[in-house]
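Quick question, first post here. What does this chain look like in 3D?
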Amino acid sequence: MPVGRRTLFAVIAIAIAAAGTSTRADALKTTMLYGKWCSDIGTLEFTADSFTVTLAADQKRGVYKIRNYEIRAADITVHWTGTTHANAMTRYGGFSADGSRMVQLPVPGSQARVEFHRC
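> Answer (accepted):
Ran it through. Tokens below.
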């Protein structure tokens, strides 16, 4: 096989392998967020269309409607609304392989990085 064909074959093989990664069993899914998550600052509880935040300091609760999810290779962005938030978003990533840990990622202008675990 001439060098040009080998290179083309290698490029095609890499492209096929990369395309296959989006359907791997460990690809991010919205259902990975569902359930209860705990951190030092409080808890989150996700369902398909809403999430509840309970602050540890005063047990204040807020329930927010999820408008949509945006899934990328390494994170899930939740677009949501609440009484004082018309078009808010929060990003989550750093999901552990066993699904027991995740991180709320900072977004420009707000929110700190917060580590969560299943509870």
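Helices lie at 3-20.
The chain has one domain: 27-118.
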